Amino acid sequence: FDILQKDSNALNIFSVGLAEKNPYFNMVEESADNGYFKVCKKLHDGINSRQEAPKVYAMNASFYFYRKAFFDAGLIGAITERSLIFEMEHECFDLDQPRDFEYLDYLITNKKLDFNML
Length: 118
Known about the structure:
Blueprint: H1 2-6, E1 12-18, E2 28-30, E3 37-39, E4 57-66, H2 68-72, E5 83-87, H3 98-109
Parallel strand pairs: 1-5
Antiparallel strand pairs: 1-4, 2-3
């Protein structure tokens, strides 16, 4: 990909899509201190709407490309301090439950995909 080729310091690139939830606004986790729940990631300035929150992405595992330097450094996992992303234009979803295949069948049958299939 051009994005990776243009940045000689980058070690890898992987595909993402915009996340449906945002850890700065509408994702919560249990506090280890008291068992109550809090926003996953808190900024110094409060976030009052999803639109004010930093843009976050969901990794969709469509592809991963690595430079040789990634492996030479003995790195493990897709995310490094020098990773790049490629934002997919279309929706990606996992096909690991029967209902996922039913959804895909619906999309194909009703020509709801926003790209051409080969």
